[in-house]
Design goal:
Shape of chain B: rod-shaped
Structural class of chain A: mainly alpha
Structural class of chain B: alpha+beta
Helix content of chain A: over 70%
Largest sheet of chain A: none
Mean pLDDT of chain B: 83
Oligomer: heterodimer
Radius of gyration of chain B: 56 Å
Shape of chain A: elongated
Number of domains of chain A: 2
Number of helices of chain A: 10
């Protein structure tokens, strides 16, 4: 079965719905002749504002719906597809609701938060369209767990073989064995690298140090070096994998708080405009 | 190839358990893939790790076909599985054993290092691999942002209007109220921009008209009481048309739609309306109505083919005054007059001041009555006073006149009574009085009477020219009544019209590039009854309707008309609350 992107869900059903909504809103906006100029307080402004507010509440509800595994109200895939497309249409509806009136006030804050939320959502869609492919290519047919296990296996093998090497080499190798980290901090996870990684240092230093060795020691050193190279390569891939996963996660750390802040700004906006009606 | 695969493992009791499996295939797949004949179900093993093929006995290969997707990137290796040979495949050990009869080969597979036995050091340093495992605060951030926005942008500003316990001092409150201001108000409203409650008097209620009338107390309604404006505009708040917070320039839009909604068929909205239907200046607008004096009031007459006549009670002809050869001036000979000789713009330069005898006519039309001896003029606008002035003048001359002035004035040689030597006799007194009164009477008749009637007794020294221009009748209609005190002269009331179209906003200044005659063609007008007001066709030569058209000035209703009519107060019952006046300082000073 061919993989179906949420963007193509049900033969672009929600794309068509969002397009219809946007075109409809734009058409009425052009047709309408407001008393002074278009803004949120005309009949069309109130209509677009109501649609926009309901859309926002519904888009927020996605966070609840996606956790309700037992729900039978459509599929999460369908919900996500609608979430993306109707969220896009929201930008059109809300922009027309403002009548392009922006300023340094709560109302524009709500608008900006909405745009920022949708923009972060677009970035999320972009990430989910590109990163999983890169992630798969990076992983090959291994999982992250497998890579970790393999590194642990390599550590055991390296430890066995490095025991009889000279102290100077052993110290470098032991640093790799004892201090190599994977993940553990936002910086390392998000950047996908660890500049102070002792394994990387060992790989760089070992050929130089090993030049003076001869005979059995040189052979052993070469074997340890080979294993360290494998470990380093696995570490690199594992770190890239962490970075890819982090990229898939990180945008939500903006998308969700922005959306919740938007909820506050939207509520304050609605109450305040009717308070001073 | 037929291969015997023995999988060895240990049960919980530590005893070795063997599972035997016979595999028949051209090549035997080894890997984590579930379809592999030799299944090595450990994450450290690739899906398709290797193959066992028959090359005169089983041979284990890696890196050849089937392992193309392997990312182990190990060097290609190939190991012949002769009995006793063992191969490390990841954590597994594969050992070839003696081939039983009927098989091509036999192997044992044993997991040497189960995942759970892996050295824990590295695993401990690779425990937190996702952002979630770091407890990066998504939910807390969201709640904090929610609270921040709610407090700063709602609870603080709302404290004042909703009387919440944390009402702040006014200055602080205004600072946070600012966040709610959706846009700049018009310049005139900027003094109250931060005083929301000046207009938004009740929370959760739309702005009432009363709030507007607090300041705009004198604003007029659209129609008079006879059309019952309250019922006609019921439910129409000021704010239906006037929206503030929409920029500093205006609160309403110059839009014919509002006007045309009613005026397209005005009587269907207001049965008593006197205007005709109009919806667009270019396409649907009636001829103009002129406002003229009639009886004690004014009348409005709509322009049509029939000429409209004005009854100003003045005798005047533009044709004579605008004669290209000029007109006679008492001192300067012939002078050419232009419109601005008599018509002066008012202070706004939008319109003109009424023509005034003293300023605009009298330079030529002097009211001298005895120019031979005096430059004295009779006062204008007061016939009785004029007669008195004439009588007093000649009485004085009869008493005080010198030889020269006496003779010039009375046409007989002599001198004033008081200038003669000795006390005057009764006869001399009577003669002087008769001389003075007779002369005064004649002069009054000359002034007021018809030229023909006067010419019979014309004063000798008075030139024809002066006489012609000075008599009242030149411009006025004169009545004559004989009373006990002599003749009573009357001048018909002058009703010089000034505002012909008082309902229209016309600005002469913005039409200054045109000649007067472009709109007011008076060069050939010979009667004061002629009306020289432009017609709608004349205006339409330059002015289009509300739809832009080539070489036309786009003209909507509000270009010439206003909505609010000053004569009809918007709400005659409205009483402003002095306490809420915004200009408090000014109110106190008053």
């Amino acid at each position: 079965m061919r993989h179906q992107s949420i963007l193509e869900y049900a033969r672009f059903r929600w794309f068509k719905a969002a397009l219809l909504l946007s075109v409809l809103a734009g058409g009425v906006y052009l047709w309408d002749e407001p008393p002074l100029k278009p803004y949120g307080g005309t009949w069309l402004g109130y209509t677009l504002g109501s649609i926009g507010a309901l859309l926002i509440l519904w888009l927020l509800w996605f966070g609840v719906r996606k956790r309700r595994y037992a729900s039978r109200a459509g599929t999460v895939q369908g919900w996500l597809s609608a979430h993306v497309y109707l969220g896009t249409a929201l930008v059109v509806v809300a922009t027309l609701h403002t009548g392009f009136e922006l300023g340094w006030n709560l109302h524009t804050l709500a608008y900006v938060l909405m745009v920022a939320t949708v923009a972060s959502g677009f970035y999320g869609v972009y990430l989910y369209a590109t990163v999983p492919g890169l992630m798969t290519a990076n992983r090959g047919d291994e999982t992250l767990d497998a890579m970790v296990l393999k590194i642990a296996d390599l550590d055991r093998e390296i430890r066995d073989k490095a025991l009889s090497l000279p102290d100077q080499i052993l110290r470098v190798v032991n640093a790799s064995l004892d201090n190599t980290r994977l993940g553990g901090s936002v910086g390392r996870i998000v950047s996908g690298r660890d500049p102070s990684c002792p394994t990387g240092a060992a790989v760089r230093e070992l050929p130089e140090i090993g030049k003076r060795l001869t005979g059995e020691a040189a052979k052993l050193n070469h074997e340890v070096y080979t294993l360290l190279l494998q470990k380093n390569e696995l570490l690199g891939r594992a770190r890239r994998d962490l970075r890819f996963k982090a990229r898939l996660d990180l945008w939500l750390y903006f998308h969700v708080p922005l959306a919740i802040a938007l909820l506050a700004a939207l509520s304050a906006h609605v109450v305040s405009v009717f308070l001073y009606w | 190839m037929k291969l015997l695969v023995i999988s060895q493992s240990r049960n919980r009791a530590g005893r070795t358990v063997q599972v035997r499996k016979e595999v028949t295939a051209d090549w035997v797949r080894v890997g984590r893939n579930a379809s592999s004949e030799v299944l090595l179900a450990d994450p450290r093993i690739a899906l398709n790790q290797g193959l066992i093929v028959d090359r005169n006995g089983p041979v284990y290969t890696e890196g050849e076909m089937g392992t193309m997707t392997s990312t182990t990137r190990k060097a290609v290796r190939s190991v012949r599985l002769s009995p006793g040979t063992s191969v490390d495949i990841g954590p597994y050990k594969v050992t070839a054993i003696a081939t039983p009869a009927g098989f091509s080969g036999a192997i044992t597979v044993e997991l040497l290092r189960p995942p759970e036995n892996v050295a824990p050091e590295f695993l401990a340093r690779a425990g937190k691999l996702t952002l979630a495992s770091l407890r990066l605060p998504k939910r807390t951030t969201a709640l904090a942002l929610f609270a921040l926005v709610a407090i700063v942008f709602f609870l603080l500003p709302a404290g004042r209007i909703l009387d919440l316990p944390w009402q702040q001092p006014t200055s602080m409150a205004m600072a946070s109220d600012r966040f709610w201001n959706p846009g700049p108000v018009i310049l005139a409203h900027q003094p109250v921009e931060l005083k929301c409650e000046a207009c938004h008097q009740v929370a959760f209620q739309q702005v009432r008209d009363g709030a507007c009338l607090e300041c705009h107390a004198k604003i007029g309604h659209h129609v008079g009481e006879d059309l019952k404006p309250a019922a006609l505009f019921a439910g129409t708040r000021c704010a239906e048309c006037h929206r503030d917070h929409k920029g500093v320039k205006t609160t309403h839009r110059d839009d014919d739609r509002f006007c045309a909604d009613c005026h397209r068929d005005v009587r269907s909205r207001a049965n008593g309306a006197q205007s005709q239907n109009a919806s667009d200046f270019a396409k649907d607008h009636p001829a103009f109505r002129l406002t003229l004096p009639a009886g004690k009031g004014m009348r409005r007459v709509r322009q049509s083919g029939v000429p409209i006549e004005e009854a100003s009670n003045l005798v005047f002809t533009h044709a004579v005054h605008l004669d290209p050869a000029g007109v006679k001036h008492p001192d300067k000979g012939r002078v050419k007059l232009a419109c601005d000789a008599c018509h002066h713009p008012d202070a706004s330069r939008r319109g003109f001041e009424p023509v005034s005898m003293r300023r605009d006519c009298q330079a030529c039309h002097r009211l001298e009555f005895e120019p031979a001896t005096s430059s004295r003029q009779v006062p204008h606008g007061a016939p009785a006073e004029a007669v008195t002035v004439v009588r007093e003048f000649y009485a004085n001359l009869a008493l005080n006149g010198t030889n020269d002035s006496f003779e010039k004035a009375f046409g007989v040689p002599g001198t004033g009574l008081l200038r003669r030597p000795g006390p005057p006799t009764d006869e001399a007194r009577r003669a002087a009085l008769a001389l003075a009164e007779g002369k005064a009477d004649r002069v009054a008749r000359e002034l007021f009477g018809s030229r023909i009637a006067a010419s019979g007794r014309k004063s000798e020294q008075v030139s024809d020219e002066l006489f012609e221009v000075r008599v009242c009748r030149t411009c006025h209609e004169i009545t004559q009544q004989d009373g006990p005190d002599g003749v009573q002269w009357g001048v018909a009331e002058v009703r010089q019209n000034h505002r012909w179209m008082p309902q229209a906003r016309f600005d002469h200044k913005s039409h200054a590039q045109s000649k007067c005659a472009d709109c007011h063609d008076v060069a050939k007008s010979k009667r004061s009854a002629d009306v020289a007001m432009p017609t709608i066709e004349g205006c339409r030569e330059c002015h289009g309707g509300s739809v832009p058209a080539e070489k036309k000035v786009t003209s909507n209703c509000l270009l010439c008309h206003g909505f609010h009519e000053q004569k009809h107060p918007w709400d005659p019952q409205f009483k402003p609350k002095a306490a809420t006046r915004v200009a408090e300082g000014a109110a106190v000073a008053r």
